[in-house]
Amino acid sequence: MAGNFKVLIAGGSLVGLTLAISLEHAGIDYELFEKGDFAPQMGASIGFYPQSNQLMDQLGVWAEIEKGVIPLRARYHFDENGYCMEASIALQYLQHLKYPTIFMERSEMLRILHDHIADPRKLHSQSPVVAYEETPGGITVTTADGQKFQESILIGADGIHSRVRQLMAYKIRPTDVALAEGIEQSFASEYKCLFAVSRNDPAAPFLPDGIVHNAYHQNHSAITATGVPGLVFWFFFVKVPSTRTPNCPRFTEADADAVAHEYGHVAPGPGYTIRDLWTARVKGSLVSLEEGIVSQWSHGRVLLLGDAAHKVTPNAGFGGNLALEGVAHLTNALVALLQDCGPSTAPEGEQLGTLFAEFDRSHRPRATAVLGLSAKITRYEAQATGFLRFAARYLSPMIPDRWKAALFARFASGAPRLEFLPVKTAAAVATACVGRSVRGQDKGTGRVWLAAGLVGVVAAVGLATFRR
After folding, report:
1. What is the distance between the alpha carbons of residues 384 and 388, in angstroms, rounded to a whole number?
2. Largest CA distance in the chain
3. Which pLDDT tens digit goes with each residue over 370-390?
4. Is the peptide bond before 246 cis (omega within 30 degrees of 0)?
5. Which of 133, 331, 332, 456 allows an S-S link to 22, with CB 3.0 to 4.6 Å?
6. What's the first-to-final CA gap in the chain, in angstroms?
């Protein structure tokens, strides 16, 4: 699209790889730098809602994803005594969204994305960006091995502990100390999470395929989900004293074992405990749950994207989906700018400022809404107040599943598509996805990931989030 315009991407996880594939489809050149290996066996799981799967379909990735997942179809909510407060059948009202809600291993998602890169020579593993300098005609990044790359813009897609964000704050500090400190301290943490992938023995499974369990306890909660044959993905959340970046704690394997031991008796669902899941784990970690939004996402030729710009708690499953929305918003804005400039002229100065401002205008309201909603759902599940406890037990179960599905569909409709790529026809997608989602289900059973909890919070707290 623009032969003399090239994007440098720091970070090769979900956001960086998806952005790279999007740029390839748009005909925009790039180089991507990852501090470790691609598709590492780190992290646990990733969940995608229908709107994200539609975007993956636009990029030609969905067909491979779909082969290995079992759409989530039912969800059950339990109190601290094991009583099932609510079961839902909302998914049958979401078929018009055409794509299912899924959960899968994060490493497998990264492998699929990596395999769909058209030119692997543009991917640089073991090459973290350690410095950058702006020049009159572009920006030069330096990697850990001393290599330098000079191109048009730098995208910091390097996660919650973003090196690019740190460098950007350092560049801002001489002229605006308060802004620099605000960027460095953008995220607070009030919960920690023990997350893992465990074996789900088909002969004696913790829970059947396509099922989600939620356990609501005061100051801690749990989620388990089975979206891939033979595996269960789970999260255990614990309230902790509040901290703020860069001072949020980092935990060790011994810390994770201690949490699993302390709360081992907790039952996320009927017939199994945290101790059982931890004993059967394939991998797992204990992390701080940072949440917040950086006040300024760009400076000069640098833009933050994904968790480097905004981080939400994972209870609602919106974090990865929000990151993909950011990729779509940015790529759409970049394509529009380069089309206006023409193939022989690279955008400069004021035009890049307009690009980044357009990204902020389109994406920040969505990020702000998702941050607020995710925070409230985390506290709803951890029963932070007596009113939220009442809402979980009495308000949410009273709301019809059709209403819950309609509310979620309204939210999903606000997600961006890649405007320069076609969207598959409804008939083709419905045939592929709806048929798969009903195989093996009991008649009348269905569920959208977190819809009941979402609506319970909305109804109880009176949020107007989905009006945005």
Report:
1. 7
2. 67
3. 999 999 999 999 999 999 999
4. yes
5. 331
6. 33
